[in-house]
Design goal:
This protein has about 260 residues and is mainly α. It is about 75% helix and about 0% strand.
């Protein structure tokens, strides 16, 4: 009973439950998209950024065939893509940022711990969602991204990025914390500033693996889960440089394995 009470008092419990909900939404969405895959006008989940985006883009194409306005067609992809990239960022990147979320909650006054965590996530997810819409969305819709060899190529690029000095520097920056003002607008500003710096370092560190996770194709959720574990492991490691090299080796092995499977299948 006391264990349940201690869990209930954790200021980051709602964050962890929200991440779990995001993964359940992705799993549910995959099932819905597969259910629609037999319909004549359906768009396969594997051809779009994610299942909501794919469904939205399919509706756009259908509307265009019936003379939909150019303004509607141009704005609809952004409207459908933004929520889904937000869900993807929530599912994949918030687990990576949990040490920072716990730092923000633990270093804030008791009565504003949950508020501080929410302020951090608002800025952190805003960065990643913007990156998803402006960078990952075009990559996922790029014609070569539909090639079977797009995934091993993206994994190979991610492996090479792991070995660069910029990657190591960004990963080390992800581990840095800072004191936070206790109350008032300075407290909110301090949390937002920390979230901006931590999120920027996380973006510089993990962008290549997020590109690999954005490549359309079967088994995409599995790769998203694997890459989330890899990013979280190197973020939690006591020796970031060693962890980065180990993840690079795993990514290179995965790239070779996928490419070999495609060549000999």
């Amino acid at each position: 009973m006391s264990a349940l009470r201690s869990i209930g008092r954790r200021p980051t419990l709602w964050v962890e439950l929200t991440v779990l909900t995001a993964w359940l939404a992705l799993l549910t969405g995959e099932g819905i998209a597969r259910g629609y895959s037999g319909a004549p006008d359906a768009v396969s989940w594997s051809t779009g950024p994610l299942w909501i985006c794919s469904t939205g883009l399919g509706a756009i194409g259908h509307g265009a065939a019936h003379g939909a306005s150019g303004a509607t067609v141009a704005s609809a992809p952004l409207l459908t893509a933004t929520p889904m990239w937000g869900v993807m960022a929530l599912a994949m990147m918030v687990p990576v940022a949990m040490p920072a979320v716990r730092h923000v909650a633990g270093k804030s006054l008791y009565w504003r711990r949950r508020r501080a965590a929410a302020e951090f996530l608002l800025v952190f997810l805003g960065l990643w969602t913007t990156f998803g819409v402006l960078a990952l969305e075009p990559i996922a819709g790029w014609r070569p991204a539909g090639s079977p060899f797009a995934l091993p190529a993206a994994l190979a690029i991610a492996a090479l990025w792991q070995l660069t000095p910029l990657k190591v520097r960004a990963l080390q920056a992800c581990h840095r914390s800072r004191p936070l003002p206790p109350r008032g607008w300075r407290a909110s500003h301090g949390v937002a500033d920390f979230a901006l710096h931590n999120g920027s370092a996380c973006l510089a560190s993990c962008w290549a693996m997020m590109v690999a996770a954005s490549v359309p194709g079967p088994g995409r959720l599995l790769w998203m889960g694997v890459l989330t574990v890899a990013m979280s492991a190197e973020k939690l490691a006591e020796r970031p440089r060693t962890a980065s090299r180990r993840v690079a080796a795993l990514l290179a092995a995965a790239a070779l394995g996928v490419a070999a499977a495609l060549l000999f299948s």
